[in-house]
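Message: I would love a firmer grasp of how sequence relates to backbone shape in proteins. Thank you; the sequence and its tokens follow:
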Amino acid sequence: MPTATTPAPRKVTRPRADAVRNRERIVTAAREMFVEHGPDVPLDEIARRAGVGNATVYRNFPDREALVREVVCSVMDRTAEAAELALAETGDAFAALERFVHASADERISALCPMISSTFDQHHPDLQASRERVERLIEEVMGRARAAGQLRPDVGVGDLMIVVAQLSRPPAGTDCLRGDRFVHRHLQLLLDGLRAPARSALPGEAVTIKELRAP
């Protein structure tokens, strides 16, 4: 009788190391140039800064929308990682919140905010997953500081996200990179105002994530 043969396991194809490095260089270059010049910067300029050919850019990202989405997702993922590091700390809860706020500002997420609302589909599953992850982790970081009695109770996640974005965005008419040296100084002023006990009552109500997403 013929015996059945077990099919050989299919070899998993992994991208070559240089291909992975090229993709990372493209995303890094795109992030820098989007911050400096906005989402309409020519793709060939991005390729030049990344040190790759135009064909390599299009092989990784078939259109501008795919590249912008990857940049925004990567920034949110790095922001989420900063929140995870803050949650892993076992010391002062408010100090962990401070470190997270400064780290998230360094990602320049404020410069990417207009892209989320105007450049591509806000409901793309990759974007939604990254956004939900970072929002959940920020809530945890703030919740821990609030439970420790160190964060004023009338501040929501939306409040923090809006203010960090506004403070890390340079004023109109000023050099984008020159304004960076003021960002952390002004963020610390914000953080001092978030400490409990609060010295005054805030007008209105805490801003929620749902309100931020409302059209």
The radius of gyration is 21 Å.
